[in-house]
Automatic annotation (TrEMBL):
It comes from Galdieria partita. One of its GO terms (cellular component) is membrane. The lineage of its organism: Eukaryota, Rhodophyta, Bangiophyceae, Galdieriales, Galdieriaceae. GO terms for molecular function: iron ion binding; oxidoreductase activity. The keyword Cell membrane does not apply. The chain crosses the membrane at residues 12-40, 61-80, 92-111. Keywords: Membrane, Transmembrane, Transmembrane helix. This is Fatty acid hydroxylase domain-containing protein. Residues 100-227 form the Fatty acid hydroxylase domain. The keyword Transmembrane applies. It is found in: Membrane. InterPro entries: Fatty_acid_hydroxylase (IPR006694), Sterol_Desaturase_Related (IPR050307). Pfam families: FA_hydroxylase (PF04116). It comes from the Eukaryota.
């Protein structure tokens, strides 16, 4: 396994990648936790519907990341699928094309698993998705607050499976797409408006209504399959009792 030096310690590339995205995830979530705690951006906050706090959610999040996500990085390096090499060099155009293809596959995998397994009559409880739905989309760190099978479907398989369908990419590309999800995912669960797009609003709608907007940040699937919240006539987030924690 190819290794790289991280602060003087030689680590497999996959472990170094895991640590990098782990840090970006927790910087993103820490930032939102501070903004929430001190109410720094009240005009951008869509809702405060969560009752579980950042510190209550954090232990399960870290457990999921270390116990389920980290081994998947190592497995992909071991299999020679990703996190293996700084080669091949990718032109800007190839990088963009690979990014679009990865995002396309990621969205289809996420939507399919989320809508047809996790929100099926039998799957919501059996696969543990109900735990993620005890959060309401207004605390960023709740993205990774999931039961084990739910976490394997929505995070591990969704982010790793696309690499199996792509021709060889390099570590910079892999780090980019994985780390991008550590910003957009928490943002979609933060309850804050995006400066562009509306995926945080759509995912809040999903958490608060459950029966619409099953897609990830790209969400073209909801548009094509007519499951976006606006196809049901929803325009506002339903009011539920605001948390005293915010
Ligand atoms: Zn969610
Ligand atoms: Zn759901």
């Amino acid at each position: 396994m190819q290794t790289t030096e991280v602060f003087g310690v030689s680590l497999p590339l996959s472990v170094a990648c895991f640590l990098f995205q782990f840090v970006t995830y927790h910087i993103t979530c820490g930032f939102f936790a501070i903004v929430d705690y001190y109410k720094l951006l009240p005009n951008y906050k869509l809702h405060n519907s969560d009752h579980k706090t950042y510190s209550q959610l954090l232990p399960r999040v870290v457990f999921n990341q270390v116990v389920f996500y980290l081994p998947s990085f190592i497995l992909l390096q071991y299999l020679g699928i990703a996190f293996c090499s700084f080669e091949p060099k990718l032109s800007v155009w190839l990088f963009v094309a690979d990014y679009l293809f990865y995002s396309f596959l990621q969205e289809i995998i996420f939507y399919s698993g989320h809508r047809f397994l996790l929100h099926s009559k039998w799957g919501f409880q059996l696969l543990g998705h109900e735990l993620h739905h005890t959060t309401k989309g207004s605390v960023a760190v709740s993205q990774h607050y999931m039961a084990p099978i739910d976490y394997l479907i929505e995070i591990v398989i969704t982010n790793m499976l696309p690499f199996f369908f792509m021709k060889k990419t390099n570590i910079y590309f892999e780090l980019f797409v994985i780390s991008l999800n550590t910003v957009t995912g928490p943002w979609d669960h933060s309850g804050y408006k995006y400066p562009v797009g509306e995926s945080s609003f759509a995912h809040s709608m999903h958490h608060l209504r459950s029966s619409c907007s099953f897609g990830g940040s790209a969400a073209f699937t909801d548009w094509i399959l007519k499951t976006a919240y606006y196809f049901y006539g929803y325009t506002n987030l339903p009011k539920i009792k605001e948390s005293s924690n915010h």
